[in-house]
Amino acid sequence: HRLRLAGGKSHCEGRVEMEQAGKWGTVCDDGWDLADANVVCRQLHCGWALHARDNATFGRGTGLILRDDVSCKGHEDHLWDCPAIREHDCSHKEDAGVVCSEHQQWRLSGGRDGCAGRVEVFFRGTWSTVCDSTWYEMEASVLCHMLGCGLPLERPSFNHTLPGKMLYECTRLQPSLAHCKWTYNKSAPCHQSRAAGVICNGM
């Protein structure tokens, strides 16, 4: 047995897919709830579940539907340890999904378009700003590239007005900032920092 999330914006959100006898398949959303989602998030080292999604929120899977009426208590080590029915009456439009607390997504706010502004990250259920103490060309390049916004032109600074603070350190161009070294709500490296911003060229 193996488990993965597909169709999301990070490895900590997406459609729940499990492998059985060498074939990958999905899980039906009948009875799918936060206790089930929690087991998935913990098993994948993605923290806890923020949302249990239904109706193929992350797109329809293909292949087998391996579980229906999953009813985890929430403490199980693996999704396949939970009671469930192997026979199902589902189609892939009922594929179950999860959003876990360690999922990160980004936006630029307050700029002229989605490719400029203050960097904000959604993490552990809340939006946070990013400390500019280590916000250099490489970090800005990763974000612009990931947002489909081309290359960074400028890195303006803003005020921190959100409850959390994230710090990123990238040594090379990664597929997303979550792949770089990051720390959350550590006061020392963010002391006297401002909130990072970026203006990408939008190309």
Automatic annotation (TrEMBL):
InterPro entries: SRCR, SRCR-like_dom_sf
GO process terms (BP): cell adhesion
Entry GO terms, CC: plasma membrane
Membrane-spanning residues: none
Membrane-protein topology: Single-pass type I membrane protein
Disulfide topology: C72-C82, C170-C180
Pfam families, A to Z: SRCR
Database matches in SUPFAM superfamilies: SRCR-like
Keywords: Cell adhesion, Cell membrane, Disulfide bond, Glycoprotein, Membrane, Phosphoprotein, Repeat, Signal, Transmembrane, Transmembrane helix
SMART domains attached to this UniProt entry: SR (SM00202)
PANTHER family per UniProt: OLFACTORY RECEPTOR 292, SRCR DOMAIN-CONTAINING PROTEIN
Entry function: Cell adhesion molecule that mediates cell-cell contacts and regulates T-cell responses via its interaction with ALCAM/CD166. Contributes to signaling cascades triggered by activation of the TCR/CD3 complex. Functions as a costimulatory molecule; promotes T-cell activation and proliferation. Contributes to the formation and maturation of the immunological synapse. Functions as a calcium-dependent pattern receptor that binds and aggregates both Gram-positive and Gram-negative bacteria.
Name the UniProt record assigns to this protein: T-cell differentiation antigen CD6
Lineage: Eukaryota, Metazoa, Chordata, Craniata, Vertebrata
Gene responsible for this protein: Cd6
